[in-house]
Amino acid sequence: MKKVFLFNTHNTTLHINTSQNLTKFHKIILQYLADTMCLETTSTNNKTLALISQGYKVLAEYRMIEQMQLKGIYAVPSYSSALLWFGVIFVHGGMYAEGVFRFSILLPDNFPDAVSLPTVIFQKDIFHPHICSLSHSLDLSPLFEFWNKDEHHIWQILQYIQLIFADPEGSVCVGLTRKGEPIPLEEVNNMDAMRLLSHSRVDYSLRAKVSIAWSLKHLFDKPPIKDPHYIVLERYQPDLHQAAMERLKSSSWYSLSVQSSVQPSVCVARIESEHQLRQEASTQRANPFGSSLN
After folding, report:
1. If pLDDT is split at 50, 70 and 90, which confidence band does 8 have?
2. Mean pLDDT along residues 286-293
3. Mapped to the 3 state alphabet, what secondary structure does 104-145 carry?
4. How does DSSP assign 185-250, residue by residue?
């Protein structure tokens, strides 16, 4: 496994055990299948082939995320199961600025053919209209009515997570009246947060800061699960990380990054509404990058 160091404004390093050009993750899928393969019956063989197909489709989702180059948000499949993903978002602006929120993504067993939506669960209750205060789950229904494997991808979920923290007010509106007044959603996961947001931005901001403070207090907690792909945060140590920092600042690194044919992602501060998010998704479908696995 290759350990990647990502530096951010919280004076921390983000350690993600990633693959070398996805080869390692590819091998993990094949090894898992080899360990469970049994060719005694046609039925078992069909199940094995289905697992192989699903593994490649999940691999394609991970490749899309890398190519989208989303800023400040990271997600990787777990080592134990391709259907469990670990994620973390660093919020740099708005009412949730300085927050570092961990989350997990659970994919349906028959992903991506299932019409049921993936499940996103945050590590801790975050005061937000779209996040349930009991289950810590994120409501994806404002973004997806149901899952369509030909149109929907995990990178869109990550971009949606960026949106709800960058613009919580815009994320709970479905449009504007003729007078230009916002039309709020009728139901959300946390109605108390919705009401407070609509009546007092100041009080809502104070509640958001409580969530931020908790996330920073537990920034360097030990992983709750023994999985080599779990995203680990460590305090910045000059003796250990300065060399990597200098390499990131070097001209050779910059020239390598700008040669990529993939266009840089839109700054999260420019994602002003769910409507814009949908427009970007439509543009992405009209101009796909590379081949996809169906």
Report:
1. low
2. 45
3. EEECCCCCCCCCCCCEEEECCCCCCCCECCCCCEECCCCCCC
4. -S--S-HHHHHHHHH-HHHHHHHHHHHHHHHHHTTTPPPSS--TTS-EEEE--HHHHHHHHHHHHS
Surface-to-core class of residue 182, CB atoms within 10 Å of its CB (0-12 exposed, 13-18 middle, 19+ buried)? middle
Which phi and psi (to 5°) does residue 217 adopt? -65, -35
- For residues 113-132, one letter each, b for 16 or more C-beta atoms within 10 angstroms of the residue's C-beta and e for the rest, the string is eeeebbebebbebbbbbbbb
Rg, C-alpha atoms of the chain: 20
Q: What's the number of CA atoms in the CB half-sphere (13 Å) around residue 135?
A: 11
Token representation of residue 175: 């449009």
Max CA separation in the chain (angstroms)? 68
Cα gap 8→3, rounded to integer Å: 16
Q: What is the pTM of this model?
A: 0.74
- Per DSSP, what are the bridge partners of residue 280? none
Q: Which of 80, 9, 76 is nearest to 231 (CA)?
A: 76
Contact 115, 146 (CB under 8 A): yes
